[in-house]
């Protein structure tokens, strides 16, 4: 019989990658070595708490677990004090003010290409009957605010609320850096508060308020529109309460 702690937990698994947890070690299986290279590089450069890279043997990357707990999850109840959210905002600001990394990340996509991708995705959502046309059209208009020139920053690129850990009011670790690189800092802020709009003010207390809220709203709509079909095709539920489709409905 296996001893306690020997169990393997499947954290996430789909056709692109899988993450397993064994005790205090996470094993990330990814055949895209460029993505793994980006993660290892970002972890080494980021001026915020990150997991330790333990070893790497393609296609597997082993990293340490980080202490603490998240402030919630998409579709779940947000937790943590306003001070904890402010601490997360301060850590994100520290990342954004760091020297630029060499790579362009997920948050640094060309706005012309992104607009074309968005239009294609909106058409597919309506054509396939996945979302009503008025919901898609309204959010496409809101998303336009995100498609503007921006000054590049060191961005995480996938800064979901589940990727930032805290103990009390202190950030103890930020995980999953495979999409990191030069990009639009407001993309990170929008990703972190997706589905938790009510905590944006708390986050900005620590981050700073010199941002355009219309751009944040634009990224909420844009990110949600782009990912609904992918989530549906890969076994996730964007229609669950508080998730991407509810984010789109909130803009109505």
From TrEMBL:
<feature type="domain" description="Aminoglycoside phosphotransferase">
    <location>
        <begin position="40"/>
        <end position="208"/>
    </location>
</feature>
<dbReference type="GO" id="GO:0016301">
    <property type="term" value="F:kinase activity"/>
</dbReference>
<keyword id="KW-0418">Kinase</keyword>
<protein>
    <submittedName>
        <fullName>Aminoglycoside phosphotransferase (APT) family kinase protein</fullName>
    </submittedName>
</protein>
<dbReference type="Pfam" id="PF01636">
    <property type="entry name" value="APH"/>
</dbReference>
<dbReference type="InterPro" id="IPR002575">
    <property type="entry name" value="Aminoglycoside_PTrfase"/>
</dbReference>
<dbReference type="InterPro" id="IPR051678">
    <property type="entry name" value="AGP_Transferase"/>
</dbReference>
<dbReference type="InterPro" id="IPR011009">
    <property type="entry name" value="Kinase-like_dom_sf"/>
</dbReference>
<keyword id="KW-0808">Transferase</keyword>
């Amino acid at each position: 019989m296996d001893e306690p702690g020997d169990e393997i937990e499947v954290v996430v698994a789909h056709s692109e990658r899988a993450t397993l947890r064994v005790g205090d070690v996470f094993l990330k299986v990814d055949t895209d070595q460029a993505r793994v290279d980006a993660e290892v590089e970002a972890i080494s450069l980021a001026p915020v708490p990150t997991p330790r890279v333990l070893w790497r043997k393609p296609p597997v990357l082993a990293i340490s677990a980080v202490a603490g707990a998240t402030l919630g999850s998409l579709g779940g109840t947000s937790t943590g004090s306003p001070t904890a959210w402010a601490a997360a905002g301060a850590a994100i600001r520290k990342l954004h003010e760091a020297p630029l990394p060499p790579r362009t990340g997920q948050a640094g996509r060309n706005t012309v290409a992104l607009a074309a991708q968005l239009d294609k995705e909106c058409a597919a959502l309506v054509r396939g009957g996945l979302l009503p046309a008025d919901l898609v059209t309204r959010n496409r208009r809101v998303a336009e605010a995100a498609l503007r020139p921006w000054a590049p920053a060191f961005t995480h690129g996938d800064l979901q609320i589940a990727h930032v850990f805290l103990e009390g009011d202190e950030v103890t670790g930020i995980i999953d850096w495979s999409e990191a690189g030069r990009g639009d800092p407001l993309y990170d802020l929008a990703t972190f508060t997706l589905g938790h709009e009510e905590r944006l003010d708390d986050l900005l207390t620590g981050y700073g308020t010199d941002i355009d809220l219309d751009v944040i709203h634009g990224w909420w709509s844009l990110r949600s529109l782009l990912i609904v079909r992918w989530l549906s095709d890969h076994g996730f539920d964007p229609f669950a309460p508080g998730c991407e489709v509810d984010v789109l409905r909130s803009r109505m």
